[in-house]
Amino acid sequence: MTDQDRARELFFGGLACLENRDFRNAETAFLETLKLAPRSVPTLNNLAIAQYEQGRVADAAATATRVLEIDQRSIDAYLMLSSCQKEQQRYDDVIKSCQALIAIEPTIAEAHCNLGYALNKAERYQDAIASFDRAI
Question: Residue 33: what are its φ and ψ, rounded to 5°?
Fold first, then answer.
């Protein structure tokens, strides 16, 4: 079996664990996959999900940031990063992440919702209302 075949097997095993809400084993599978394919954006994005679901928000944010270093247009990474920042009450960072995502893909409702939430927390109420309106 080639390294690529082994990485694919590990990756799909990790996806199965995510589907079964077995986040710890999913994380293990994705970390093993990354040993064989260290710049795999899908693997990193799914690793971030496994970390987030285990309550390890800072780790998930760091993983999402790593994805964005590889692929500056990763919608999944921006969504994860903004969710982590929101959880950490880093509202200025949520605003920046959501604005960057909306610049790439302006139709993602979740980005507009997260942005509206952060703008509301920043007491920018009119901007928040406009963002929520764009989410609908």
Answer: -60, -40
